[in-house]
Amino acid sequence: NAGVTQTPKFRVLKTGQSMTLLCAQDMNHEYMYWYRQDPGMGLRLIHYSVGEGTTAKGEVPDGYNVSRLKKQNFLLGLESAAPSQTSVYFCASSYSGTGVADTQYFGPGTRLTVL
Amino acid sequence: AQSVAQPEDQVNVAEGNPLTVKCTYSVSGNPYLFWYVQYPNRGLQFLLKYITGDNLVKGSYGFEAEFNKSQTSFHLKKPSALVSDSALYFCAVRVSRSGSARQLTFGSGTQLTVLP
What pLDDT does residue A99 have? Predict the structure, then answer.
């Protein structure tokens, strides 16, 4: 049981380049999330998904796109990278319960630098 | 809107002494509150959560947190700090109402350093 995994761990891009970050979970969770972490700002939600085939915008969605074609995978795309997108990106997942608070489980993160 | 404040960027404590990491929140409705810990170059690890019931919540690694509704606080505590507790700690809140997409709002984090 690997939990939440993220690929790649590190990436350096030039401004204008595109890339996709992959998140995979093996816990059969319905909900998946993408966050970015910047110094002194905590984690901010980019996009999330409440089930296969569904996505929604979070707090800071501009410049990013996501897809959830399979329940276990959640992809985050940057179509034209900008230096402001230099950050550490975390994926998380949670079980779709019956209304009781769900714990989000986090992946190890992807450190992205945009030059 | 929901928000979380962690008023201290940095907390230093001597090994063996009790530690407290502060968190206050603001939500419309009943809160669900969480504490996570992040070790260097790692993802966030869940420590504990408050849903309802007993105001004192016990979690992993000997940590506990006290929910105080009147002060809208959820401070993290440990009776005796270890050097290995040194890490970045995040408080998070979510509103309990049904239909929520379970979006967590995180505080800015508190760096805890336990001095030997």
Answer: 54
Closest partner residue to A42 (CB to CB) among B98, B101, B107 is B107
> Residue B20 to residues B10, B82, B114: CA-CA distances in angstroms?
11, 13, 12
By the 8 A CB rule, do B37 and B44 touch?
yes
pLDDT-derived band at B110, boundaries 50, 70, 90: very high
| DSSP secondary structure, A8-74, as one string | -SEEEE-TT--EEEEEEESS--SEEEEEEE-TTS-EEEEEEEEETTEEEE-SS-TT-EEE-SSTTEE
Tokens of A93: 């997942």
Report, as an integer, the average pLDDT of B20-41: 92
Q: State whether A44 and B36 contact (CB < 8 Å).
A: no
CA terminus-to-terminus distance, chain B = 41
From A49, which residue of chain B is nearest by alpha-carbon distance? B101
Bridge partners of residue B72, in order along the sequence:
none
pLDDT digits (tens, 9 = 90+) for A22-81: 999 999 999 999 999 998 888 999 999 989 999 999 989 999 999 999 999 999 999 999
Cβ within 8 Å, pair B46-A104: yes
Q: Which of A19, A31, A22 is nearest to A86 (CA)?
A: A19
State yes or no: pLDDT of A20 exceeds 80. yes
Between chains, do B43 and A109 touch, taking CB under 8 Å as contact?
yes
Contact A3, A25 (CB under 8 A): yes
